[in-house]
Amino acid sequence: MPVRIIADSACDMASVDHPQLTVLPLTVAFGTTVYQDGVDLSHERFYELLIEGDELPSTGQVNPYAYTQAYEEAVAAGEDIVVIALSSKLSGTHQSAVTAAAQIDAPVRIVDTQSVTVGEHILVKYALQLVDRGLDAQQIADAVEASRDRVVVIGLLDTLEYLRRGGRISGAMGAVGEMLSIKPVVTVEDGEVHLMGKARGSKNGRNLLTKKIEEVGGADFSMPIELGYAGLDDKLLRKYIADSRALWEEYPGEELPVHSVGATIGTHVGPGAIALAFFKKA
User: Which range of residues forms the domain containing residue 221?
Assistant: First the structure.
């Protein structure tokens, strides 16, 4: 049977990216106005509102009803279902997928990516590659689960302002960090975001990213790789790619895949952040 991959908008992909992909939107609320991420709120418009606003927006999980609808459509089309979900430790979206699966009379294979944004993105891409190779739903779910521990996610934040505004660091720490031009370097481990280190200035921050990539042995370029940027342009990310070009010499494509990071992470890191995700060498 054909396989339908169902993901959520935290992966920063769209349903139009592949004929067997369905992406369900999380919600983003600015005050009393609620948007569907990637549907009636583009990434560009999100960052415009984020920069202009005095208060942080809130994000909401995909609800069980949205999953139930997607499951029923797939079943009606004669498709098997594999769900690739945002980390269960960061959102209730995974639980919504599980709850909805109990409401239909068909098998649903649900994979907790234990990741978000670029990390979730490359796992969805990998699943779609397996669809194109003709694997069945169980084989795809098993392969994605088996590979998720190889995923490395590293990000460099341009500012501490949005972590401060979101209450994730103290106001005093945020003020000192901004004064000293501290650039936090973060990663995703065991499904949660962790601070890897702090660098003085953007150049030192980019150097720390490169060091962390080298420490894990570099990327397996036979598997998907993805780079992301938060904000209205990708200038900082393009500079990082150029400055660290030795890391990408073995990449087989003409250009590294780059996309904008959406509201799920953008709300917390703010504009100017860059991130990359790859599979460690086996």
Answer: 151-279
